[in-house]
Amino acid sequence: MSGPIVLALRLITAVALYSFLGWVLFFLWREVQQQSQSLANRRVPGISITVKHADDPSILKHFAQAEITLGRDPGCDIPLMDDTVSTRHAQLTYHHTQWWLTDLSSMNGTILNQATVSMPTVITSGDEIMCGSTSLTIALSPNLVIEPTQRLEKQE
Predict the structure, then answer these.
(1) Where are the beta strands (DSSP E) in 26-132?
(2) Averaged pLDDT for residues 42-49
(3) Would you give the DSSP letter of residue 152?
(4) With b meaning 16 or more CB within 10 Å and e meaning fewer, what string describes 29-62?
(5) pLDDT band at residue 28, thresholds of 50, 70 and 90?
(6) Residues contacting 58, CB < 8 A, separation 6+
(7) Residue 43 contacts residue 66 (beta carbons within 8 Å)
(8) Rounded to 5°, angle at Cα 93 from 122 and 150
(9) Terminus of the chain with fewer CB atoms < 10 Å: N or C?
(10) CA 86 to CA 78: how far, in whole Å?
(11) Pairwise CA distance, residues 88 & 42, whole Å
């Protein structure tokens, strides 16, 4: 009589264990789905950058991506045709609800409002960034929120 009771207890324990594992996996799957929807709906506020080099006309560029690279490399988001600019000179990133400027170990350094950038620094609207002899003026657009998959560029 004890053999069938032990077998029944083992079956009940196995069913309880598999039910618990199924519940945990379902809960984790649901959390991953909610996080992916949250990330998909995350929006980056627009940023406009006016690029001015020597006597060349100003170029106005609009971005809605969370990462913008500046440098001489044509693959950069803002390619700067200036011999005093490094290949990958600086980077603008949006995180923690703010835009940050980081110097990417450039040879001549990055200057923000006449101060050398030595660590990631928060930027605001109206700030002036100097990369070599190229000046970039920042205009943040809190009202302009564009989907992260879009990228606008406007040249004047």
Answers:
(1) 44-53, 59-63, 67-71, 78-79, 90-95, 98-103, 110-112, 115-116, 121-123, 128-131
(2) 81
(3) -
(4) eeeeeeeeeeeeeeebbbbbbebebeeeeebebb
(5) very high
(6) 50, 51, 52, 156
(7) no
(8) 130
(9) N
(10) 12
(11) 27
Q: What is the pLDDT of residue 66?
A: 86
| CA angle at 61 for the pair 101 and 124, rounded to the nearest 5° | 35
Mean per-residue pLDDT, 95-116: 88
Minimum mean pLDDT among 91-100, 116-125, 144-153: which range? 144-153
Residue keyed to tokens 């709906």? 41
**Lookup result for tokens 């700030």:** 127
Tokens representing 82?
Answer: 């200036």
Supply the Cα-derived Rg of the chain in whole angstroms. 26
- Is the pTM value of this prediction over 0.90? no
* Cβ atoms of 69 and 80 closer than 8 Å: no
